[in-house]
Amino acid sequence: MSLGALPGFRDFYPADLAERAHIFATWRDVARRYGFVEYDGPPLEPLDLYTRKSGDEIVGQLYNFTDKGGRDVALRPEMTPTLARMVAARANAQRKPVRWFSIPQLFRYERQQRGRLREHFQLNLDIIGESGVTADAELLAAAVDIMRAFGLGPADVVARVSDRRLLQAYLAAAGVPEPALPAVFAVIDKIDRQPATVSAEKLDALGVGPGARDAVLAIGSATWAAISAVLAGAGHAGLVADFERYLRALDALGAGAFVRVDLSVVRGLAYYTGIVFELFDAKGELRAICGGGRYDTLLKSLGGVDLPALGFGMGDVVLGELLRSRGLTTWQSSGIDVWVAIGDAGDVTDAMRVAARLRARGRSVEYSLGGQKLARQLKAANAAGAREAVILGAPGAASGEAVVRRLDDGTEQRVRLDAWIGDATPPASNHQPPATT
Ligand code: HAM
User: Which residue, by CA, sits nearest to atom 17 of ligand 1?
Assistant: First the structure.
């Protein structure tokens, strides 16, 4: 029997955890800049929470079971239903619009493939209680600024934006029969991931005529000029004007260079009602980095409170792959500040005292726990990534003196130990403290 991790689950060795910590710190930093506050919910939820609203695809991937009390439960596959439930339960007490974020670990029994595992961490950023397109633009601008904070620009990442209402109106204008629309949405959601012949066969089976079928198959390459002309002609000038306001707001927020209108983005989840979007690597090699949109009816259907809502989820798996492929691996540089070494005339108790004083001043410090010769201690200091070693009891050192050796170039300096410790100030931290509510 193998005792390795289950398929699709990850062990986080320190180097992997350093990557995860970097991703989380960057997420938290940008969320804070946009005024979002952090929340969390339970990892195990009633099964009903998902079977009622998330849609068949996610329900088919649930890790669900009956608990010892006979309840049907599921590990959370997404955060949105939990958020909707939490906000609905205390809707009156919240300042509106609610701007909340969370970094849950989520579980989906998916077919394993590149960028898809059975657990992942997902940043969720949601705004509740605002129906105008400014909120939609604010949300996507935050996703785009997260990309920038990781060092990714418009040449690396594209934001494909769409609106389910526009798509529905466009498909109706192209002749897709109304009852077939939900099933046609499902075909469009997979259009990039399956051969065109398979999509065409599915559309034929749904009773979509040849003209409408060709319009569906070409949906991803239709320009906004062509789409808006069709829609305005079909009596949807209001929807078009709203979407154009959204595009202008994205420009004003500095996100325009990343944005491409693409009506083939419909999102796999069932609860979206309006503007939707997905972020992809610009080369089109990876699966979506992030996806989200408006879900204006979900709160009402789960909790009875009628509040408009929108949000996105951004996973750590595809993002990590993209950062590694672009060499944006800044998290690899960390090491300790000081190694306290003991020369022939030194004593390990002195090393402990010096380490304790430096740690009290915020320095990260190690010393040899096993009692080694000086040369081996310095080797260990290098392996720990220490920037400098302070050597106590070095040959010829007077009482109260120590030798400080820089480990990058080997230069040494004799110092008064007390004064040197007194000068040690905490290093600047790269990490922002987590936002608090
Ligand atoms: P989603 O599109 O299912 O949306 O997931 C969002 C992102 O999570 C994906 O773009 C992907 O990066 C990541 N992701 C999803 N499944 C996996 C997986 N099996 N392995 C690795 N990464 C994965 C939602 O979950 C919505 N609830 C997002 C949302 C929040 N909508 C509104 N608010």
Answer: 116
